[in-house]
Q: What sequence folds into this?
């Protein structure tokens, strides 16, 4: 009896020690899984934020190109042709909750081809000539215009720009109200505060 007691005590101690070790291993294993999950979650969140910023920057580039094109190149003389254009196969029309009028007539190259649609490179690590985004810009009439959706009467239109990530097909769009005038301007238009491309302040001389 005196000899068996220490043996049993040592056995119990070893059993308890083994249980403690197993619990510690389980805790460490759980902590490792949690850390890995947290790291992947943060990496995924950072990736989404980066993509969102890239889409916004790309859409802004398209918006700037659209402002330049419709204000300086097209102007009031030719804007109605684009307001009445059929873009429903590419951009959201009113029939699907979008801003562009349904129907209309096709305009060659608009908005699927250059200069309205342009592929661009947002990731500078890509090889030259490799594109990962594209923007498409178009125009629709100012909802506050007293005319119709396809006829401008107040020289104000809305430029719409949508960017698409060519890898994930995710998209983001932006828009802005601009004033347009005749595509041919005189040298005094910039002095009126409008800027020489008619994109600045519209100060009116009294």
A:
């Amino acid at each position: 009896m005196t000899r068996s007691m220490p043996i049993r005590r040592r056995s119990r101690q070893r059993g308890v020690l083994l249980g403690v070790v197993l619990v510690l291993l389980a805790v460490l294993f759980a902590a490792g899984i949690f850390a890995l999950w947290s790291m992947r979650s943060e990496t995924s969140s950072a990736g989404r934020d980066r993509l969102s910023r890239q889409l916004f920057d790309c859409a802004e580039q398209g918006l700037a190109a659209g402002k330049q094109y419709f204000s300086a190149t097209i102007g009031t003389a030719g804007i109605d042709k684009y307001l009445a254009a059929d873009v429903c196969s590419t951009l959201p029309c009113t029939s699907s909750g979008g801003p562009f009028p349904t129907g209309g007539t096709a305009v060659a190259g608009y908005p699927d081809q250059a200069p309205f649609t342009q592929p661009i490179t947002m990731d500078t690590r890509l090889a030259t000539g490799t594109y990962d985004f594209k923007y498409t810009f178009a125009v629709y009439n100012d909802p506050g215009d007293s005319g119709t959706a396809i006829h401008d009467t107040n020289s104000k239109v809305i430029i719409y720009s949508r960017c698409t990530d060519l890898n994930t097909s995710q998209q983001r769009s932006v828009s802005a109200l601009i004033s347009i005038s005749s595509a041919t301007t005189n040298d005094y238009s910039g002095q009126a505060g409008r800027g020489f491309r008619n994109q600045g302040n519209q100060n009116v001389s009294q």
